[in-house]
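Q: Fold this one first, please.
A: Sequence and structure below.
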Amino acid sequence: MLNQNQVTTFEPQVAIVTGSARNIGRAIALRLADKGKHVVINGRTKSEELDSLHQEIQDLGGKSAICIADISTEKGSKQLIQTAIDHFGKIDILINNAALRRNISFAEMDYLAWREVLQTILDGAYLCSSAALPFLRQSKMGSIIFMGGMSAHTGSKDRAHVVTAKMGLVGLTKALAHDLSQYGINVNCVVPGLIETVRGDSAGVGSPEHHKKNTTLIGRRGTIDEVAQFVEFLCSDQARYITGQTLHANGGAYLA
């Protein structure tokens, strides 16, 4: 029981969400902000979507900072981490969400197309995690979340690069759980499946084949807010016994 003269202060956690301009990344940033965390939001290019998200977080009474940076490069990833330190002085949570989801057959895929996707999804996750590590080690509640993909586990037509990169995150999750447990950092991979999102067909990002073929046990697609709630739980103190796991949120799609 607290003495009447004692005053408790709770310093807000600081979270980084890469690729947070839209869809799942945006929902995660909003969820974390709504739970009292300071959030650094990120996009590769400046956009009205990021500005709108920043304003929405302010309207919630939260605090956020925008970092325009290409996290698939060492310079961009370090810029992102430095933005968090400059604005909030620390880092507790890193959500590696940034991804490219191109549709192209393997026969037509050249090396540049292959590398562009792996560089964003897999190299970006490595670069951001590496740059954030010195600061996550100072947190008493350090968490790294990699956002996987259902197609990495089912396979998907015209997505060899995406499938490969997302499955690489599963291996990275297990490896870092071993390496970083000594620092009290939890590492997990969240795999959303059959989630209703806005896709840009003009960039070759239509609905993948497994979205067209697969169904769920519960009879509907998931929402971005449901994924965000799951991610937020894994970053909470209630989930400190969970690490090294690949956790699926797909409405029972594997069983349907």
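Q: Good. Now the second chain.
A: Here it is, same layout.
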Amino acid sequence: MKFSVITAFLAIAATSLFQSALAQNAAEQATGFVGTYTNGSSKSRGIYAISLGASGLSAPPRLVAELENASFVAIHPTRPLLYAVSEIGASDTKSVGLVAYSIGDGGKLAKLNQRSTLGGAACHVTVDPTGRCVGVANYTGGSCILFPILEDGSLGKAGSFIQHTGNSGVNVGRQEAPHAHSINFNQDGTQAFVADLGKDQILLYDVDPSKGTMKPSKQAFLDLPPGGGPRHFCFHPGFEIAFSNLELTSQVALLRYDQQKRTLKLVKVLDTIPPQARKTGNSTAECLVHPSGKFLFVSNRGHNSIAVFAVDAKSGSFQLMGNTPSVGEIPRGFGLTDDGRWLVLGNQKTGNVVTMSIDQETGKLTQVGKPVSLDAAVNVRFYSRQ
């Protein structure tokens, strides 16, 4: 009798420990999505899911949706939804520029619907922070478009399409026309910011996120350094400052955002690579701020590194702390986990995905585990279960 009681107690204790271990393991796991180029020599087929644990990526990437040139994905802030662009040259009303998916178990994606973005080479997508609309930047020809998100997560009909005009022409080969490269929103989704590489400008739009409509803000644009070629734009968590990486000059600009006046002002520009590396050829790709707001990361293609900057939002200043090798060639996009512990990047040319831990005090990046193979990996975003 006593033996049976002890055995039952031990069984219950073991079950409890096992369940606790499972819960801890689940808590440590993060699901990410990697966008890839599928054309040319690439063997990739679309969007892949990855699982990240304490020792890095726990398994090879898993194909979860086939999509031509799925070069950028965005996750809904509160719902299991993912939106992905298909970066192709077509721009007619029948072309596929943006696809909506629901996220299921294991990161499996189920297609909801698709929309044309009415412009060639849809290269960037963002969901507004309130989760009511989706914005897309079309590189070829330079345009941007908004779609309202319907109740089931699918895309409604386009609310606004805006064609950019003009160009800076400083870099003859790259700035011969407008080239919208990214779109992002302010804290409540009522203002959008479009980085246009061809115009050397950040364009500002007032947004009604419930309808997916926009119009130029009172401050319609902010000029950035001539020839810089603004590519991406990201806010600091407090939304008092923002950053835009300048693709063509290997620099990043710090901008001051006035939330009351809804205006942007250029504050400071810094290099993303050491002076001696400028002759080797380089272009920046993506910029993201750490969830703590203490660090800024910028990817360098050519120098093949991630630049780490220390940020002081109160004083409106930042400084380059160093460059970490990307462990591959042409690091394009990267993602940060919500807890700020991990940075995962895709190296486009060498076709691998690399995991790095982030020192919470210094921002220092340290490779964890081995890179995993994935052809033309160019974008990473993480999904947080709500």
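Q: Anything worth noting on the second one?
A: Helices lie at 2-28.
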